[in-house]
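Journal club side-thread
Mid-discussion, someone asked how the predicted structure for our own chain would compare to the paper's figures. Pasting it here so we can look after the session.
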Amino acid sequence: MRTRRLRVVLLETVATTTCGCVSVLADSPIVQKKLKTVSAGYTGCAPEDNVLSNVAPKPDGSGTWNATCNGKTYLCSAVATVNKSESFHCTPVAQ
């Protein structure tokens, strides 16, 4: 019985980490704060003034999102490398 329970827990863990559950992380306050702070350096607005949308994280830590402030929208991206370093960039959305 104990072995069966361990298998169930293990399967739940694998399913949770491999399913589309990454989107839950995109809504986490910690992730939102980080993305708003990164965006601030490009939008020229304080982090709390950036409104995020279209947050699309990937399991490897990279992803894209939009940051909007003062009526201007920016397309932002994060690139993660194998050694866990990150690179960020935002630019005004093409019209």
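Post-session note: Residues 2-92 form one domain.
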